[in-house]
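Re: the 154-residue chain
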Amino acid sequence: MKEIEQRGLWFEEFDEDAVYLHRPGRTITEADNVLFTTLTMNTQSLHLDAAWSAGQPFGQRLVNSMLTLSTMVGSSVAQLTQGTIVANLGFERVEFPAPLFHGDTLYSETRVLAKRLSKSRPGQGIVTLEHTGRNHDGTVVGVAVRSTLVQCAP
């Protein structure tokens, strides 16, 4: 019997000409947002206080942008980095051009911006990824550029 283990991509497998679509999407609920916001000790009324938020420019609570970012990156793991990443090196850019609301579905995709072998860590490479999150209407709600250290194929 042949055994196949789910894993992310080795450094060599990242394709700079591809856009990786991460499916399924994730519908963000009120419970998700309140739990994430309170777990991370973010007391921002814009995420927790429905009455106060109703009087603000968007007229309702917003999904915590860090939850949007975490979900965008997290949705890429199984397809791109599960078991092949060495480290998340950092984020160059994070933007939230439009809000995400309770009940919106977040769909994420990733484009490889660059990749190079590590000069100091043999058998590993640096891959720069651009994650984009869109709501169910296709509106971009988040963009993040991050660098990762990834294992080369054994």
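Residues 8 and 77 are 7 Å apart (CA to CA).
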